[in-house]
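step 4 of 6: structure.
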Amino acid sequence: MTAEAMSPLKIVPMVPKVVSPAPEAPEMATLAGQAETDREVEPAVRVRGLTVAYGSTPGIKSIDLDLPERSVTALIGPSGCGKSTFLRALNRMNELFQGVATAGEVLVRWDGQFQNIYAPGVDLVELRKRVGMVFQRPNPFPKSIFENVVYGPRHHGVSNRALLAEAAEEALHQAALWDEVKDKLNAPAAALSGGQQQRLCIARALAVRPDVILMDEPTASLDPISTGKIEDLLGKLSKDYTIVIVTHNLQQAARVSHKTAFFLNGELIEAAPTLQMMTNPRDRRTENYVTGRFG
Amino acid sequence: MSALNTGRTAVPTQTGVGAAVRTRLRGRRRDTGAIWRGLFFASAIFLVISIAAILVMVGRQAAALFTQVRPLAFLFGRVWAPEHGLYGALPFLVGSLAATGLALLIGVPLGLAGAIYLAKLATPRAQRVMRPAIELLAGIPSVVYGWVGLTALVPFIRRHSGHVTGFGLLAAGVVLAVMVLPTFISLAEDALRAVPQDIEHGSLALGTTRWQTIAHVLIPAAWPGIAAAGILSMARAIGETMAVQMVLGNSPVIPAGLIVPASTLTSEIVLEMGSTPQGSPANNALFAMGLLLLLISLGLIIAVRATRKEATAGVRQAH
Amino acid sequence: MSAKRIDQIARWTVTAAAGLILLVLGYILGSVLINGLPVLSWHFLTSRSSNLEPGGGISMQIFNTIYIVTLSMLIAVPIGLGAGVYLAEYARPGRLTSLIRLATESLASVPSIVFGLFGMIVFANAAGLGFSRLGGAATLAILNLPLIVRVSEEAIRAVPADLRHASLALGATKEQTIFSAVLPAAVGRLATGVTLAAGRALGESAVLIATAGMSSPRYLTFDPLASGETLAVHLWAVNAENSLSDAARIANGTAAFLILAMLAVSLGIGWFARRLDRRLAGQG
Ligand SMILES: Nc1ncnc2c1ncn2[C@@H]1O[C@H](COP(=O)(O)OP(=O)(O)OP(=O)(O)O)[C@@H](O)[C@H]1O
Ligand SMILES: [Mg+2]
C-alpha cells in the first residue's frame, strides 16, 4: 500500500464504490450500503474484545467489530445498550468519566499500520486528531464562527492567518455551511440556528482532518430540515472519511449507512451491511428491533 | 487529479492548502502543558504556604512575648499596662467575646427572620429588592459602618441612656449585628432552601399552617446549616476591627457595663500597632493577641466543617 | 390563640424584620450621602489632603486607592485563578486536595487585622519596604485570594462538560482546552467574581494601616515603594488623629465617595451578571 493510498484525503476511494443513489431522493428508501453487500471493504478501525465498565455498572461487553474505511457505520439499539459507550471508546473519551475501566483492543490505522489505541504510551492528543467526534447537542465554543472552525488547526500549530482562513473555508464547504455563514464569519457561533451549529461542529471536526469521525446522535436535537441537510452531508463525507454514527432512527440508518451494528444490553448482537440488516437480519432480536416489535 | 477535482471545491487535495495544513497538523507539538500544570499547582500550594507563613510569623512574635510573660498571665491578666510590664489581655478578650455575643444576640434573630422571609415568604418582586439590598450591606466598607456608628448611633445611645459618651459594647454590638447580617442571611437562606421540598409538602399536606411547617419542620431540618451560618457570623464579628474600634471608646479595662468605653483584641491591635516599636514586649503582645484571634478563627472554621459534615449526613438521611 | 392567628402574627413579624433590614440599609446609605454629597466638590476631589490646616481634599487618597487595589488584583488574580483552575480541573480527592481546601477556608477566616500584622512584619519590616503601596497591595492580595479562588473554581465548574469534551475531541490538550474553551466560557462569572473582590479591596483598611501607611508621597508618583494612604484608611485616620477642625467634613466626603464607589462596583457586577444571562440565553 502506498502512502498516498492511505490518505483519507485522497479523492479516489481505495475500493471504488458504486455511486450510491443521490441522498436528495430519500423516497427511494435508499440503502447506501447495497453496493457493498457482498464485498469486503478494508476496515479503518478494528475492534477486538472491547469491554468497558463504569465502576460496577457494565457498559459494553467484549465487542468485536470492523469499521469499513470511507463508509458510514450506523450503531443502533435501544436506549442504554451501550452505543455511546462504544463510540467514546474509539477515541478514549470514556476516560473523562470517573471510574471507567476498559479492556480489549481498538486498532486504528495510524500512519499505515494498525495501532492499538489502548496500548501504553499512546498519545491521546494524536489519537483525537485522527479520530474526531461530533456530539448529540451542538456545542460550539463561545467564540466566533471562524474561531470555532480553526480551533483545531490553531492548537495544532497553524498560526498563519491565510492558511487558517483557507482551512476554515474548506471545512465549512465540506460541512455545507459555507454559503450560509461566509458573510458573518466573525459573528458569535451562538447566534446560529441549532442545525447550523451542528454543521459548524462538524466543520470544526473536519478542520482537524481526521481519518475517522464519530457522531453520537448528531441529529437528535434538530428539526427535520436540518436533519436532512446533515444526512446529505454524511453521504458526501463518506467518500473521504470513515464515519460512525449512533442513531435511534432506523430510517436514518438505512438512508445514510453502509453497515449497521445492533447493540443490546451492552452486547453486539449483529453487524452486517445495512441492506441485509434491514431486510434480512440473522438474529431474531435484531429482527424484532428493526421491525418495531421490540420490547 | 485536477480533472477529478472539478466541481468539488469542498474536497481537500493532496497539494496546496490542504497538504500544508495537514503536515502541520500531524507534526510534533511543543508541550507547554507541563509548565502550566506546574504553575496551577504552585498557585494552589501558595495558599497553603500563605496560611502557614501567617501562623509562623505571627506565632514567632507571640512566642517572643512568652519568653517574658507567662502565657497564663497574658491570657487571664486583668491589667493592661505595658509601661509597668503588665500584659493582661483579659479585658480585650472579654470585650471581643461580649461584643460578638451581643452582635449574635441581635443579628441572629433578625437575620433568621430575613432568611425565612427570603426563602419562603417573599414574592419574586420583594426578592428583587431584598437581595441587592443585602449585597449592598455586605459591600459597605467597615470604616463607613464605623463612621455612621460614631456619628449617629453613639450620640443616639448617649441621648437616650444618660451616659457621658455613648461609646461601648452596646454600640459595637449593634454595628456588628448589622455587619454580620449579609453573611448570616445568605448562608441561612441557602440552608433553608436546601431542605427537600417533599419534607415541607409532607407537613403542609397534614394540614399544618405555613408557620408551623417552618418552625417545626423547616428550621429543624436546616439546623446544621443555620448553625454554620451562626458560626461564620461569629468569626466575622470577632475579627472585625475598624467599625468596632470607632464606637468602643477604647478603654483597656474589663467593661463594667454595656455603655462604658471598652476595648477588643482587634481594636487594641489597630490602635497600638503603629505606635509600638517592633520587637518590644508591647508590640509582641499585639502579635500574641493576633495569634489568639487566629486560633479562635481557625477553631471556628473547624467547627463549621464539623457542622457541614453533619448537614450533608442529615440530607443523605432525609433521602 | 389559634394556629391561624399565630401563623398570621409570625408572618407579619418576619416581614417586618425584613423591612427593618431595608430600613437600616436605607438609613446608612441615606445619611452618608446626605452628609457627604455636599462635600464632594471638584476642589475636594482634586486637592491634596493636609494634616495641618482645614480645607484639604482627597485626590491622593483616590489615586492611592486605585493604585493599590489595581496592584493587589494584578497579584491576586493570576494566583487565585491558577489555584481555582487547579482545584476545578486537576485536583483529585485526597490528602493534598483536602489540605489545599482547608488552607483556603482558613485563610478566608483570618481577621483582616491579622493580615495587617503579618504584612507589617513581612513586607514593611523583614523585606525592608517600610510603609509602601507594594507591601499594602501584596497583603491585600493574600487577603483576597480565598475569595478569588472560590469564585474561579465555581466559574470553571459551571462550564458545561460538553465544551471540554468538544475541545478534547478535536485533539486539543488539556491545557489548551482550559485556556481556549473553558476560561472563555467562564469569563462572565470570573469578571463578576473579580469585581466583587476589587470592591472588597476598595473598602479594606485594617490590612493597610500598618503596611501601606497613613501618608501619601509629596508628589504624584507611581513609585510602588512610596507609602499610600487609601480612602478607607483616610476616613479612619482623620477621625483617629482628630487634629483638623474640619475632620468631620472630610470624613463625610470620604465616606460618601466610598459609598458611591461601592455602588458603582455593584452596578458593574449587575452589568456583568446581566450580560452573562443574555449570553447564556443566546446559547439556549
Ligand atoms: N458516565 C457514566 N457513568 C456511569 N454509567 C454510565 C455512564 N455512561 C453510561 N453509563 C451506563 O452505561 C450503559 C450504557 O450507556 P450508553 O450511554 O452507552 O447507552 P446508549 O446506548 O448510548 O443509550 P442512549 O441511546 O440512551 O444514548 C448504561 O447502563 C448507562 O447507565
Ligand atoms: Mg447515547
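step 5 of 6: annotate
 - The interface with chain B takes residues 4, 7, 9-12, 125, 129, 152-153, 156-158, 163, 166-167, 170, 173-174, 176, 208-209, 236, 239-240 of chain A (CB under 8 Å).
 - Residues 1-39 of chain A have pLDDT under 50 and may be disordered.
step 6 of 6: archive
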